[in-house]
Specification:
By secondary structure, the protein is an alpha+beta fold. It contains 17 helices and 13 strands. A five-stranded mixed β-sheet has the order 12-9-8-4-13, with helices on both faces. Strands 1-2-3 form a three-stranded antiparallel β-sheet.
Length: 402
């Protein structure tokens, strides 16, 4: 059984165990039909240029525009979120009764006619995208990869906008998936221990291939991902070194339920970040003044202290520490707790944590040199991540399956 079939089996078993779907799954078809009637190809194609701006883009106090509905209306929000960020994520937007384009620091005020021109151009791009969907086939993952290539050639940067991706999904919910963020869909694919394609639509194709191994449609399949994997959708693995100055601290960490970083020249991280101060800048300053670090080294180490200090343990997101001794895997630890500073310790920057599992001598990261020699760095290599996903979520029984 290949990974795609295994993904389908996992989801099917979970659904058949009694999973109750969110009501949106049963009403998606109607919601999409209503959307297409109001904002689909024919509806937008027939809208006059002087009306397209208000029909599609945000305006003060107007809650019926296409993008307002897609971003904020519950029945559309349930089909994947594009919330977040500032209004300049759209090519044209209104603020306090005036139309603008561009990022906030360099925004440019527009007349209604100028704003309408930009709006019409944007709508022409999404209509061209719909035309390309109609001309494309989506039988294999590589078909999706090719579609992305053609889409970017056709509409350039618009191909990467989350709102454009959601617009395509609303028109073709059987072809695409309700994940619009590059990183989220990457992790959704890796949840099933499949190495993700390099492109967004390539990853869409991978999820669709999994869906096709089941009797369920896209919306039912994707709903289960959140329930089965939970925080796995937003998990980060950090490699932390347990050897300092020739001494191994791993056994002590396990006994005391902790991890730690060295460098007494960096004062308490709580004091670095107090009163909303720029913690990294304070760490950089300490490293330069007390440790003699050059600018590049100070910034690199400050990023590592920052990641360590901000590590999370939430219902929706979790940071897992991969304890290592050189290139040797030692243990996985999670449920990171409060930070404390102990000046008398060799490693004064301490966080409580739970030891999840220990590795054997046979366990090896596929690319063990990633982060070697650093204090605390996030693991990015996909082969390493897939290895850790399997060890942490599957072998340690962290899935939402009883």
């Amino acid at each position: 059984m290949d990974r795609y079939q295994e993904a389908g089996r996992l989801v099917t078993n979970f659904i058949e165990s009694g999973f109750v779907f969110h009501p949106v799954a049963s009403r998606q078809a109607k919601v999409c039909e209503e959307f297409q009637a109001e904002f689909g190809y024919e509806a937008l194609k027939e809208t006059p240029k002087d009306k397209i701006l208000m029909k599609v883009f945000h305006s003060d106090g107007e809650e019926s525009s296409m993008l307002y509905l897609l971003e904020y209306k519950d029945k559309y929000l349930d089909l994947g979120s594009i919330k977040g960020g500032s209004p300049n994520k759209y090519p044209v937007y209104m603020n306090k009764g005036k139309w603008y384009t561009g990022v906030l620091k360099n925004k440019r005020e527009l007349s209604f006619e100028e704003a309408s021109d930009i709006a019409q151009f944007a709508v022409d791009q999404i209509l061209a995208a719909l035309e390309l969907v109609e001309r494309s086939k989506f039988d294999t993952v590589q078909d999706y990869v090719l579609f992305e290539k053609k889409l970017r050639e056709k509409i350039d940067k618009y191909a990467g906008y989350a709102w454009v991706r959601k617009y395509l999904y609303m028109n073709y919910p059987e072809v695409f998936v309700p994940f619009y963020n590059d990183e989220w869909i990457r992790k959704a694919v890796m949840c099933f221990l499949v190495k993700p394609e390099d492109t967004y639509y390539g990853r869409v194709g991978q999820l669709i291939k999994m869906v096709e191994t089941t009797e369920y449609d896209v919306i039912h399949f994707t709903q289960t991902i959140y329930k089965i994997f939970g925080c796995m959708i937003d998990v980060h693995f950090y490699r932390i070194n347990s050897d300092f100055e020739g001494k191994s601290y791993a056994d002590e960490w396990k006994k005391k339920g902790m991890i730690a970083l060295p460098t007494k020249q960096v004062r308490s991280l709580d004091s670095c970040y107090e009163k909303m101060m720029d913690g990294k800048e304070n760490i950089i300053k300490s490293l330069k003044e007390q440790y003699g670090a050059d600018d590049k080294a100070a910034k690199r180490m400050a990023n590592q202290f920052d990641a360590y200090y901000k590590a999370r343990n939430e219902d929706w997101a979790v940071d897992v520490f991969v304890v290592m001794s050189g290139s040797k895997l030692v243990a996985l630890a999670d449920r990171v707790g409060e930070y404390r500073y102990a000046a008398i310790e060799d490693l004064p920057h301490i966080r409580s944590i739970s030891w999840v599992s220990e590795f054997t001598d046979k366990d090896r990261l596929p690319n063990a040199s990633e982060g070697l020699g650093e204090l605390c760095v996030e693991i990015q290599d996909e082969d390493n991540l897939l290895y850790l996903y399997e060890k942490y979520f599957y072998d340690c029984n962290k899935l939402g399956i009883k």
